[in-house]
Design goal:
Length: 289
Amino acid sequence: MPVWLDTTNATGLPRFLLTPVGAETRPGAALKSCPSPRARTRARARERLALALVVSNNSDMSEQLRCAALLHDGKQCRSVAVNESEFCQHHGRLVAVHGTEALRSGKHLPTRRKRVFQAAVVADGVVRPTGNGHGGGVDPASVRPRLAEAAAESVEELRRVLLETATGANRNLWATINCKHCGRAGRYEITVPDNKVRLDAIQALLHESLGRPGQAEAQPVPALPASAEQVRKLSWDQLTLVFATQFAAEIAAVVRGDGDAVLRDRLAALGPDERRRLREALRDSSSSN
């Protein structure tokens, strides 16, 4: 950005150092639309020199006009002194309270609170060895008995908590409610019973007091064989049961001693062709043996 300074400024810089970047001092330079690279280089050098001189003069002036008060870190206040005094506007109001010397030395600053570090506390405990020979742990076999003892000692408190949860567990919800006066809808927080938590508390209370109800094992559902492969997979006991169910009357007659009479009645009921096939089957069976 071009920097414009006046020769009457406190810097006392010559006019050729105060020319903006890209401008030429010779006549007719304004007619050129784009200065040459050499001209731009000279202009940038003059601008950097002018800015360096201005910053140097301003820093010298700011060092002379800075506030004389000290800050917490021991450094001098960076604000500018006002009203022909050696303090800024803020510290100038504190002169009447603390005095000039206190502001210069920093005694007007409040004392910072020192941090107090507490030493680590080491508990003098006795490590009891467990059954597995390792110290510093708890024997897994003693966990449940110790928990049972703790529950027995606090049984009344546990009962009270379960009863309060089962009868008074609530939760907060946000609902949209229409105002009965103006009819405008608004979001309001309401309290409703938490039925899930209450049912869980009731179930836990009943299980701990009355015990869990017995559960019967699911019985397998019988199904008839749907293919020959399934029939072949039947056991001998199942096949025997099928045979006994099909010929229950004949088996009872054999047990009573009437097996010969039942066999004669069955053979008499056969037709000529059935008797012939039966004789051939018996003949083939006897010949193979």
